[in-house]
Amino acid sequence: MSFAGTWNVVMKTPMGDREAVMVMAEDGNSLSGTMEADGNTIEIQEGKLEDGRGKWKADLTQPMPITLEFDVGVDGDAMEGTVKLGMFGNSAVTGTRA
Question: What is the CATH number of the domain that holds 51?
């Protein structure tokens, strides 16, 4: 399924649920887009489609500097997978198409 579009995403972190809005685009096996949370917008990096899954990174500066590494799949209007939270390990991530 396609990652292209706008997604309402929830990350289950040790600091509680973190919500973000992602706007994604596909170009062949490449993913690009933005992630907006808490009034900050960042570009996703190293986005790719691999084995039917989307993988990308996002460098946050707030509430602390950390690189998030996503590995998710899409089934229709639902997104589900994991996000690596730097030294804090992996957490579940889910999303719904907006």
Answer: 2.40.128.120
User: How many domains does one find in the chain?
Assistant: 1
Predicted TM-score of the model (pTM): 0.92
Phi, psi of 59 (to 5 degrees): -95, 110
Between the CA atoms of 87, 5, 77 and 46, what dihedral angle is there, to the nearest 10 degrees?
-30
Tens-digit pLDDT profile for the chain (98 aa)? 799 999 999 999 888 899 999 999 999 999 999 999 888 899 999 999 999 899 999 998 777 788 999 999 999 999 999 999 988 899 999 999 99
Question: Residue 72 pairs with which residues in a beta bridge?
Answer: 54, 81
Q: Please give the residue range of the domain that contains residue 41.
A: 5-97
